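Let's inspect one such protein example.
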Amino acid sequence: MPAWFSLKWAIVAVVGLFAALGVIGGVRKARRAWRNSLLGMITQGVKDEIRQGKVGPEDLNMRSVVQAPPKSVSDLSLTLIPRIAKDYPDLNVSEMQSAAQAVLVKSLQLQTEMTSGTNGDTVDRIERELCSCGIGVTRSLCQNLDQIIGAARSTGKTLIYRDVCVHKGGINEYKRTASTVEITFQYSLQYLQYQERNGKFISGNRATPTQARYNVKVINILDATRLAMEDTKGVGFNCPHCGAPVRHLGTDVCEFCGTAIKTVDMRVWLVDQLLEI
């Protein structure tokens, strides 16, 4: 083979090598430019979140952003408010409805806060936080919420409720029994609801809001603590002379025998139940 022929192909090989290196360098330069661009940084950030489990398929599925309509509310306020006003003329039902709604929203927030924080939280904290909403709560409600939080913590789960929004609320039921009076409010709301473990998504949906409906029961019960503090048999809902029931709080005279009696307002309104329906 002639020497010039070998030299020719050697030159071609060298030129090709430099060309290839130039292409590779250009590709690398283009990649650097892409990574440094705004769109490139966003794309890389999404990739990182997917790798870390912070973003799941539901977050990237554009079809999932089609939002379901709010759930309806069975609102019987027009019928029930006059009945409540007759029994409790001084009760501000609208104010109670707002306070009960605040307890509902706060309970969802506490589930997020207390499953993502330390284990030092107690039922007392739950009661304190819920009572800050402007209405009392029963101890059993706080204990039930504490059980939900404790069960999640025992498995390392974080219960997340984000972007909570209440669509509508109304009075669903008013009921009187021998020992209690119950007012049940019903609310339609939405939120992003999902669960994480160690910062990684495990279930739920972070892209599409969940539409939910809750009943919040407020009860009016005998305050046993105040009853125990009184040292006279005349305190209560029965006449100390004839034993007839005292039907109205604030009564000074028994309507059956005319005996002077002492009654105490021993009833308090407390949120007793939060129930998703």
User: Anything to note?
Assistant: Helices lie at 3-36, 38-52, 57-60, 77-87, 93-116, 123-131, 139-154, 224-229. Residues 114 and 149 are 7 Å apart (CA to CA). The chain has eight helices and five strands. Residues 3-36 form the longest helix (34 residues).
